[in-house]
Structures are given as C-alpha cells and as structure tokens.
Specification:
Blueprint (H helix, E strand, L loop, with lengths): L6 E6 L5 H13 L3 E6 L5 E4 L2 E4 L2 E2 L10 E4 L4 H5 L3 H12 L4 E4 L3 H6 L7 E2 L6 H6 L3 E2 L4 E4 L2 E4 L5 H13 L6
Parallel strand pairs: 1-2, 1-6, 2-5, 6-7, 7-11, 8-9
Antiparallel strand pairs: 3-4, 10-11
C-alpha cells in the first residue's frame, strides 16, 4: 500500500465519463489512499448513463489542506464543473499549493477555467486542444504529460499511465493528514 495516509479528491458532476471516474476511484483506493468524492454544490448525487454517484462533500467544503491530490475525470462533466466557482477555486488552489492535479480527456476545461495552463505543457482529448492552447498551454498528443505537479492524459485508454504517474508523484510527497 503505497498511498497509506494520503487523501485524494475525485471530482464529479453529471455526465462524468464512467471509466475515468471508476478506474481512478478503485486504483487509488487499492494503493491505500482515502478517496473522497467532491461534487459541485448544487446536489449530492450525480448521474451518468444511469449510474449514480453520491458525493462525500460539496466543493464549498473542500479544503486544500485536507487533500494530497485532485483527480478530474472527463466526459461532459468538466463543462458543468467549471460553472461552480468553489470547484474551480479548489482546483486552482490545489495547483498553487503544488499538489498533484490530474486531468484526463475533457477535464482540460477545468484547467482552463482554473487558469492553471499558461506556460504549461499538457494534453487532453483532441477536440479541446484549441481551448487549452488559447488558455496558454503547449499541447501535445501523448499518453501522459507531466508539467511539475500537473498530470494530463487524453482518453480512457491512457488511464493506466495516468494513474501510475499520479501515484508516483504522490509517493514522493509527505501526507497532508
């Protein structure tokens, strides 16, 4: 168990990509992390393709000092997530604190809204490349791109490398709690 004592915030909103939510949820738990599902403040239950997830806490109660990393799954959820100012602030503040911020697929939209991309290297699902470049990122089509504490990937096929890379970066940091 490499992540014993570490806490991961896994973000959620309606229309999340099921694979990009479920795979990290179980992978980080398997590695020993305490995974907390953080949702927007509008409700506590979120749906995607008839699957429902209950958030452990709303974004307005998520505190950077309580977490060691944040994971943002893709799907259409990030477009909804970025309308919640508390969730956007949380991602921005996690990045500012130098804690691992993982974003896969369309999660790049949250990075755009959190204004963490200027001067950074990143990847995403190809359809939001223009958005990420317009926000100041240098975009590349790679399985996983690491820029300091930011870890980005393109699609569910990249999930093994995405999770492995975030776990490796977390292992190098002392636990928050």
């Amino acid at each position: 168990m490499t992540l014993e004592g570490k806490r991961v915030a896994l973000l959620v909103e309606d229309e999340y990509n099921i694979d990009e939510f479920v795979y990290p949820y179980h992978r980080f738990k398997e590695a020993g992390a305490d995974v907390k599902v953080v949702g927007t403040s509008r409700t506590d239950t979120f749906s995607s393709h008839d699957r429902h997830v209950k958030a452990d806490l709303p974004a307005n109660r998520a505190r950077v000092e309580d977490f060691d990393a944040v994971i943002i799954p893709g799907g259409h959820a990030p477009d909804k997530m970025r309308m919640d100012k508390d969730l956007v602030r949380f991602v921005h503040d996690m990045d500012s604190a130098g804690k691992p911020v993982g974003a896969i697929c369309h999660a790049g939209w949250m990075l755009v809204s959190a204004k963490v991309l200027p001067g950074r290297n990143a990847t995403s699902f190809y359809s939001i490349r223009d958005d990420m470049e317009a926000a100041g990122a240098t975009w590349s089509d790679e399985e996983v791109v690491v820029d300091r504490n930011l870890v980005t990937s393109r699609t569910p096929a990249d999930l093994p490398a995405f999770c492995r890379t975030i776990i490796e970066s977390m292992e190098r940091q002392p636990a928050t709690v």
